């Protein structure tokens, strides 16, 4: 198995509800991070094999594979794929795990992992507004299931 390394890390400042970052579309906010990443690392996006992006609330501005749209918003070449994963509060960590697995297995050489949530535009629980995401069998099993993952760790 090949060794993997984290070459560079970039993030936006922590925002607050309706604060300075709230006007950004999730793809545009991600694009800022992606472009800062390649600049700091001193690499061309052309060598990137994949982008794996975590996002919990994949509705509204964050729907339809925000990972892929982040790559396009960054102006990176169209041949670079992007995908989006959701593992609730661990989505970006899962993105990193998938990236590491791809490099360790030899399938890919350079993978970018990260994630995005613009909670001013897509608040916690937004997916529930359009239906019942857990289904009747889960609700039957957990009758007191009146909370979501973002609240349960408290």
What does this molecule look like?
The chain is an alpha/beta fold and 154 residues long. It has a single domain (26-141), classed as Thiolase/Chalcone synthase (Peroxisomal Thiolase, Chain A, domain 1, 3-Layer(aba) Sandwich), CATH 3.40.47.10. It has helices at 26-41, 66-73, 91-104, 135-141, and strands at 50-54, 82-85, 111-115. A three-stranded parallel sheet has the order 2-1-3, with helices on both faces. Strand 1, helix 2 (66-73) and strand 2 (82-85) form a beta-alpha-beta unit. Helix 1 packs across helix 2 (66-73). The longest helix is centred in the first third of the chain and has 16 residues, at 26-41. The protein is globular. The model has no long low-confidence stretch (mean pLDDT 89). This is Acyl-CoA dehydrogenase. Residues 5-127 form the Thiolase N-terminal domain. InterPro entries: Thiolase-like, Thiolase_N. It holds the Pfam family Thiolase_N. GO terms for molecular function: acyltransferase activity, transferring groups other than amino-acyl groups.
Shape type: globular
**Rg (C-alpha, Å):** 17 Å
Order of SSEs: HEHEHEH
Overall CATH class = Alpha Beta
Which features does this protein show?
Acyl-CoA dehydrogenase; 4 helices; alpha/beta
In short:
By secondary structure, the chain is of the alpha/beta class.
Note the topology.
Blueprint: H1 26-41, E1 50-54, H2 66-73, E2 82-85, H3 91-104, E3 111-115, H4 135-141
Parallel strand pairs: 1-2, 1-3
Helix pairs in contact: 1-2
Pfam families: Thiolase_N
Protein name: Acyl-CoA dehydrogenase
Domain Thiolase N-terminal: 5-127
